[in-house]
Amino acid sequence: MKNSTKYMHKAIALGLIASFISFQSCKKSFLNVDPAQNTAATLFFKTQDDATKAVSAMYANLREWNNIAFAPIAVESMGSDDVEKGSTASDATFFNDYHNFTITSGDAQLGGFWKGQYQNINFANQILTNVPGITMDETLKARYLAEAKFIRAYSYFRLVRAFGDVPLRLTLPKDASEYNLPRTAKEQVWAAIETDLTDAANVLPQTYSSADVGHATKGAALALHAKVAMYLKKWSDVLSYTNQVMGFGYSLYPDYEQLFRTTHKNNQESVFEIQCSLIPNNPDASNSQYSQVQGVRGVTGGGWGFNVPSPELAAAYETGDPRRDATIIFRGETTPEGDKIPATGDNPMYNQKSYVPFSMYVSGFNEGCQQNKIVLRYADVLLMNAEANNELGSSAAALIPLEQVRARARAGNNAILPKITTTDQAALRTAIYNERRVELAMEFERYFDVIRQGRGTAVFGSRGWKAGKNEVWPVPQNEIDLSGGALTQNPGY
User: Fold this and answer.
1) Average pLDDT over residues 128-155
2) Which of 471, 442, 439, 438 is nearest to 454 (CA)?
3) Contact 197, 218 (CB under 8 A)
4) Could you give the residue range(s) of every CATH 1.25.40.390 domain in the chain?
5) Degrees (nearest 5) of the Cα angle 143, 149, 151?
6) Which pTM was predicted?
7) What is the C-alpha separation between 437 and 452, in angstroms, rounded?
8) FRET label pair with 297: which of 97, 230, 243, 250, CA 20 to 30 Å apart?
């Protein structure tokens, strides 16, 4: 199991890393890391190539351990009723403390998640501070600054929904007196996120050439802004942003199961994905462990078997819904790609959305390192649009995007999924909530969806979730200790 390196509080909690990883030039430059080449920030940011390398480093950090493996599983998935710890009973038992809401502020995954987000924010802030002074193509410069604002907004979104009030660092500190910031009220953090996303959407292109696939687009900025507005219950904004994205030419990938396979990365449904790849002869650059930590345990090319689907999720699908088998690998089955799953083992189910066919495993590399992590996809945009329409009293309009999602699940699978026809607002709200659950299962959405919907006690209460406390996780105690008294703890922890 990977051991997360400890960093100084000044460098991580407040984002003061002083160097950028230098990247080799290739078609997808931010996939190819050369860890031997590091340059101090004071000597960097001189040329357009430096700016490009900095942006590449920012994207590359998104697939780092604390952004894509144990820490986000703990903070963004494990509280959900859709998952269980998985693996062997004695391994990584701290996941159970998240699932049972007994976690304390000293758990390392909290600190890892916090660190990962502020690393992303630091990369963005370095770009936003230093790139404006570079003499370079002005259109490209504006785009790079917009991409940095998108990544900063994405990381603050993850932080604020996980912890509530968090330090808001929008500039690099001028001196040591600015190292330790207090927590900023969540309302101000949300406002900063919205400002960044508005700025980003005004500049970013709708599409890129193949050389820049994976960079944030206008659609990504608007879709994330829609999600932010959904959390803030700004339903008119959700409708506006999703309507814009729905006019950009995205469409649902016809085959739901194949949507998540490595051979169909960045397809027409993809709005934003964290780019991961197996780079020949470079295991260090092929560093994603997203698939590895969730892969089928006990088979070559599988993985560690954590974050597995729960019986409650398996029972949540309507009879005949093909998304059930496309989301869950069952013990004893043969996958559509021909992999035979052992009939016995530690876990009865595994996450099929993170699955990479075993034949793609290369010795010496992380299992499944080729698998992208989908952050935003068009089905989510459609369901946000449906929810916004319903909340604004346009229930008939809400049925249209809802039916698009269900029609894709129904098509080509002989599935008997009836159309939802109710225009009763409360009944349709429940239907949309259920659709989000099964459509986006195992994609790290369910836990915070339930909380923003105000259903935490009803859905999670039997496991110990308490209103007034468990809407957020505890602030990492190590960060509090190292902050010199600047950071405070969330109530109840």
Assistant:
1) 98
2) 471
3) no
4) 1-204+456-493
5) 105
6) 0.93
7) 14
8) 97
Answer for the pair 54, 45: CB distance below 8 angstroms, yes or no. yes
Strand boundaries in 184-334, DSSP class E: 270-274, 306-309, 328-330
Burial tier of 1 (Cβ tally within 10 Å: 0-12, 13-18, 19+)? exposed
Name, in order, each residue with C-beta under 8 angstroms of 194's C-beta and a sequence gap of 6 or more. Answer: 225, 228, 229
Report d(CA 223, CA 246) in Å as an integer. 10
Q: How far apart are CA 316 and CA 282, in angstroms?
A: 42
Residue 222 is predicted with a pLDDT of 99
3-state secondary structure of 374: strand
Nearest to 305 by CA among 293, 313, 287: 293
CB burial of 39-69 (b: ≥16 within 10 Å; e: otherwise) equals bebeebbeeeebbbbbbbbbbbbbbbbbbbb
d(CA 265, CA 249): 17
User: Hey, what are 388's tokens?
Assistant: 């916004």
Confidence band for 26, pLDDT divided at 50, 70 and 90: very low
Measured N-to-C along each axis, helices 378-391 and 235-245 cross at an angle, to the nearest 10 degrees, of 140
Query: Quick one: CATH architecture of 1-204+456-493?
Result: Alpha Horseshoe (1.25)
Mean pLDDT value across residues 465-472: 98
Angle of helix 218-231 relative to helix 186-203, nearest 10 degrees, comes to 160
Using the CB atoms, write b or e for 165-199: b if 16+ within 10 Å.
bbbbbbebbeeeeebbbebbebeebbebbbebbeb
Read off the pLDDT of residues 297-333 as tens digits, 9 standing for 90 and up: 999 999 999 999 999 999 999 999 999 999 999 999 9
